[in-house]
Amino acid sequence: MATIEFKPVTELTYAQAVAELETILKMMQGDECDIDQLTSYTRRASELLTECRQRLTTTDEQLRSILADLEK
Fold it and tell me: Fewer beta carbons below 10 Å: N end or C end of the chain?
């Protein structure tokens, strides 16, 4: 059984991470989902979600800071 090698999430753009999440979701919902890889898919999806959430939070904080500076 071949192992799946994923690129580190920090090396992905936000769009790439979302696209990979969508791909994983489709694979997991499909009839041909490899049950032996289900744990890897789930772990990877969790890593991607965590990274995306962190980037969104960071972006939100930066935007709020910029807007607050503009109001001064």
Answer: C
* Cα separations in angstroms, 61 against 52, 53, 58, 72: 14, 12, 5, 17
How far apart CA 30 and CA 46 sit, in angstroms, is 19
Give pLDDT, residue 1: 42
C-alpha 47/C-alpha 9 separation (Å) is: 7
Number of domains in the chain: 1
* Contact present, 29 and 35 (Cβ < 8 Å): no
Tell whether 40 is covered by a domain. Answer: yes
The model carries a pTM of 0.82
DSSP letter, residue 32: T
